Structures are given as C-alpha cells and as structure tokens.
Amino acid sequence: MSRSKNLNRLIIMGSYFKRDSYLLGGAIGIVLPAVALVIVAALFRFMEQIVGTPFAFEKKHLFLLSIMINLFPLRVYLVRFKYDKTGRGILALTFLYVIAFFLFLH
C-alpha cells in the first residue's frame, strides 16, 4: 500500500472523530473503557508473572481504572473542540458505568 493511501485513511479517520454527535460520544464511551480494561488487566497479569506475586488489586479496582480513561476524551471534546453533544455522550456513559459499579460491584 502506498504512503499516500495510508495518509488519506488517517485524514479520513481523523475527520470522523471531529464530529459533534451523541452517537460518537456513546461509541467512545463504550469502546474506550472496554479496551482500557483489557489492556490494564493484561498488563497487571503480565507484571504478576514477572514479579511472581499477585498485586493487591481487585477486579473492581481495574474496572474503576478503565472508567477513568473516559475523562481524557471527555475533556478534549468539551474543552478543546467545544463539541457538547459528543462530550455529553461520553459523560452519560461514564455516569452509567459509575452507577453500575456502585450498584453491582461495590
């Protein structure tokens, strides 16, 4: 694949994320914490194998860490881009995650 085609794909993808939409905010609010949870859990599991002793983190703490990841795109969309709908979509799902955490995991 040529370099220009890769650059065009990055430009198209970048413009896709620069929209003011509740649907985009919802998608970011769902996908980003799920990916973060998988990465953080794998990282802790890898570190436990290297060190040889388990860490004192419970699964509920990993869940909270993955929810906190939503704060970064929330700030970017609300403060930097001024996209209220996308920011509100992320914020709504973050609130739902926190409510679910306190109802079911805490």
Question: Could you describe the 3D structure shown?
Answer:
This protein has 106 residues and is mainly α. The chain has one domain. Helix content is 81%, strand content 0%. It is built from five helices and no strands. Helix 2 packs across helix 3 and helix 3 runs antiparallel to helix 5. It is flat, with a radius of gyration of 17 Å. The chain starts with a helix and ends with a helix. The mean pLDDT is 86.
Strand and helix map with partners:
Elements: H1 3-16, H2 22-51, H3 59-68, H4 71-80, H5 84-105
Helix pairs in contact: 2-3, 2-5, 3-5, 4-5
The gist of it:
With 106 residues, the protein is mainly α. 81% of the residues lie in helices and 0% in strands. The N and C termini lie far apart (49 Å).
Instruction: Give the ordered list of helices and strands.
Output: HHHHH
**CA-to-CA gap between the ends?**
49 Å
The dominant shape is: flat
Q: How much helix is in the residues?
A: over 70%
Segments where pLDDT lies below 50 for 5+ residues?
none
Number of helices: 5
Number of domains: 1
Strand content: under 5%
Number of strands: 0
Largest sheet: none
Decide which structural class fits the backbone: mainly alpha
- Can you give the mean pLDDT? 86
Report the C-alpha radius of gyration, rounded.
17 Å
Feature tags:
mainly alpha; 106 residues; 0% strand
